[in-house]
Amino acid sequence: MKENKQSPRTSALLSIIPGLGQFKNGQKVKGGIFLGLFILFVIEMVFFGGNALVGLVTLGTNPGVDNSMFLMVQGTLQLLVTIIALFFYGVQIRDAYQTAVRIQKGKEVEDGWKGIRDSLATNGFPYMLTFPAYALMIFVIILPVLVTLFMAFTNYNFNHVPPQSLISWIGIQNFHDMFFLSSYRATFLSVFGWTLIWTFAATTLQITLGVFTAVVANQSFIKGKRLFGIIFLLPWAVPAFVTIMSFSNIFNDSAGAINVQVIPFLNHLLPFLHLHGLPWMTNPLWTKVALIMIQGWLGFPYIYVLVTGILQSIDQNLYEAATIDGATAIQKFNHITLPAILAVAAPTFVTQYTFNFNNFTIIYLFNNGGPGDVGGGAGRSDILISWIYKLTTSNTPQYGLASAITLLISAIVIGVSLVVFKKTHAFNMD
């Protein structure tokens, strides 16, 4: 009787060698599968995995022969394989223990291919469906993220380009340079400050325009709503690449339509304005103003469509009751319309801010981050993501520093998103 009580613990201890706990429980097929996977992992570690992990630590020892980046990628992949193997190692120990508990309670335990098949068809079916997605995620998302993470702690730059030369681990030096090295600190603070201004101003403008057009177009006295809907969707229908390149020509200082046609027309229509052509492409301030206006134009149609759907779901009796109580249009908007919009669209609004925080396309295509520069390879209208691009594609690339900035961007975006999502109850599934 005493031996029977220790059976679950004994099965778990035997599972230190994968499969033995299952053999003790009478599950020979399952035990054979775990033992076979363990043997395959050991063979893989002997012939490849061990060297891959060593390469991840050393990043090579023979310049001109060893490629540090290949070693980092191979080592990172092996690290993921090892973590997965350790996970399944723990799973098989837990499985042996729980199976022994079921046997101790007199419950039936199935074995053989039929039992495994039946178990997969019931309890394991959701895992079978999601396994391909998880496997793909390892190679498409987790592996690149880990390589970028590791790269941020290396001296991978124009002086250390494998395989001609090896890269090595330097700890937090890149982060230190970003915040304390005078040349990069000034650049980082300038670019980061403009990134925050750009994100807040451009996104707020497109959200405001989207909400405003949706609310106005949804009023009962407005005629031709379908026509307005088509007009408002035009910026969304045209590819953003084409629109941005067109605006780049429209805002040209000497030959653009704004300075050549629009401003003279306004002066002719309203002579007292005395407007002059503005340096949209050569003055950093006006370039930034143009970028914010263009993004407002590009981004508001999506908000318009989203908010239009929300407005159509609001009970009109609420507005009728507010009218009877003497509420003004502003009061109706503040107490009925806006809360209804935010209750549904707040998480989407947050994603618009995070998107514009990393909106590389408009910054690069409009004026390539110019005009001028603020040092460190960054232009005066560059945001963090476009600065990273320049750091990695210039004649003197700084891959390690670019990776460090990438990690900082990720931390900011993820942190802010999680806080706002929690405050807006976006994760509530009720």
UniProtKB/TrEMBL annotation:
Q: Which GO terms describe its molecular function?
A: ABC-type maltose transporter activity
- Matching InterPro entries: MetI-like, MetI-like_sf
- Give the ABC transmembrane type-1 domain ranges: 192-420
What membrane topology term does the record carry?
A: Multi-pass membrane protein
Q: Which PROSITE patterns match?
A: ABC_TM1
Q: Which GO terms describe its cellular component?
A: maltose transport complex
Q: Which residue positions does the secretion signal occupy?
A: none
Chief location of this protein within or outside the cell: membrane
Where is it located?
A: Cell membrane
Supply the alphabetized keyword list.
Cell membrane, Membrane, Sugar transport, Transmembrane, Transmembrane helix, Transport
SUPFAM superfamilies found in the cross-reference section: MalF N-terminal region-like, MetI-like
Concerning CDD domains, the annotation shows:
TM_PBP2 (cd06261)
Q: Does the keyword Oxidoreductase apply?
A: no
Q: Which domain of life is it from?
A: Bacteria
Q: Please name the GO terms of the biological process aspect recorded for this protein, alphabetically.
A: maltodextrin transmembrane transport
Give TM segment ranges: 33-57, 69-89, 133-153, 191-215, 227-248, 285-307, 399-421
PANTHER family this protein is in?
MALTOSE/MALTODEXTRIN TRANSPORT SYSTEM PERMEASE PROTEIN MALF (PTHR47314), MALTOSE_MALTODEXTRIN TRANSPORT SYSTEM PERMEASE PROTEIN MALF (PTHR47314:SF1)
Q: Which family does it belong to?
A: Belongs to the binding-protein-dependent transport system permease family. MalFG subfamily.
Record function comment: Part of the ABC transporter complex MalEFGK involved in maltose/maltodextrin import. Probably responsible for the translocation of the substrate across the membrane.
Q: What is this protein called?
A: Maltose/maltodextrin transport system permease protein
Read off the lineage from the record.
Bacteria, Bacillati, Bacillota, Bacilli, Lactobacillales
